[in-house]
Amino acid sequence: MTIEYDEKGKYYTNVIQKVAIPSIIQTTTHLIRGMVHVRQGERLKDELEGNEEYAAVTNASIQDTNGNVLYTSSFLAVQKQHIVWVMPVDEEEKKDDGA
User: What phi and psi, each to the nearest 5 degrees, are found at residue 89?
Assistant: First the structure.
């Protein structure tokens, strides 16, 4: 990793900082629960609209249409063109609370 400093002392690196957002992803055939990684200061929507072909998901659980867990993985790359919808887990919790 390289670190460069400007004249004001601000530093720059080639490492991209990301934040993990607990999410549910519906693909054309499966439901995925896990942590979607987005750049700091950006929204989940921004990550999905980015130029990368895949979305990074950690602590992934892949379920079939009946809710049975088929696979679990510490890392999963989901091809964005197969995503039907994505929902942060916080939104689901609000629904369950009656809000």
Answer: -60, -30
> Which alpha helices (H) appear in the chain, and where do they start and end?
44-49, 89-96
Protein fold of 30-88: SH3 type barrels. (2.30.30)
| Other Cβ atoms closer than 10 A to 36 | 24
With beta carbons less than 8 A apart as the criterion, state whether 61 and 17 touch: no
Domain coordinates in residue numbering, the chain: 30-88
Task: Give backbone dihedrals phi and psi of 78, rounded to 5 degrees, phi first.
Answer: -100, 125
User: pLDDT tens for residues 43-59?
Assistant: 889 888 989 899 999 99
Task: Give percent above pLDDT 90 in the chain.
Answer: 53
Those residues with Cβ within 8 angstroms of residue 45's Cβ, 6 or more apart along the chain or in another chain = none
How many other CB atoms sit within 10 Å of the CB of residue 30? 15
Q: Is the pTM of this model over 0.85?
A: no
